[in-house]
Amino acid sequence: MNNLSVVILTKNAQATISAAVDSALLVTHEVIVVDSGSADNTLKIAEQQGARVICIQWKGYGDARNSGAAEATNAYILNIDADEVITEQLAESINQLQPEAKTIYGFKRMNYLGTKEIKHGEWSNDRVWRLYNKNETRWNLSEVHEKLDGGGFRKTMLRGALRHFTADSIASYQKKMDGYARLSAKKYRDQHKKIGWGKTLLSPLFNLVKNYIFRLGILDGKAGWDIAKAHFQYTRNKYLYLRRLKEGKPETT
Length: 253
Known about the structure:
This protein has 253 residues and is an alpha/beta fold. The chain is 40% helix and 24% strand. The model has no long low-confidence stretch (mean pLDDT 95).
């Protein structure tokens, strides 16, 4: 397809942005990097690789994706993150695509912890919906777990996948998930959700068993156990943070 722009969100992504931009250039001549305050060499590297950089004040993932789309000269937008790489097979699918305005396109993600591909557990069967016509839909303004707005759309999966270099270590992944837990707690508070102690205590345990046993995280070895524990902590923390927000207490574990 010819009328496609790629939008990449960044903040302090100097380790991964070069590969992300290079892969984006497999499907477009217009790569827009939306940066929310990098203090490293992210912007310099992105510009050297051929991307156009815009800087924004962070108001959430949905707002950032919409800001990038607004700067694009093309109607169709593909969103990837700074730690994602478009595979050759996915690039081929996109280049051969004859898109329909009322269709949102998705694809699988291959997730990595460091250099190890994780094939089971929470990270298995990961699909994202990222290619769309900006004149027909836009991202909602949720700070986390943002989605494309609107009804009446078809969803079509493309062949190929994104490689997602989720975290370089389990410690950095736990830190990332703690940030998501805080954002989720604020989202739940704004939605006036009520979470009882039963859900606070049982949901994390259920999540651990589901990911490690039923989704076969055990087959990924120590990494599978570490990831299952990280999601146990994430589920527990988002409910604890919500309770503390409602009680006016500091967000500490």
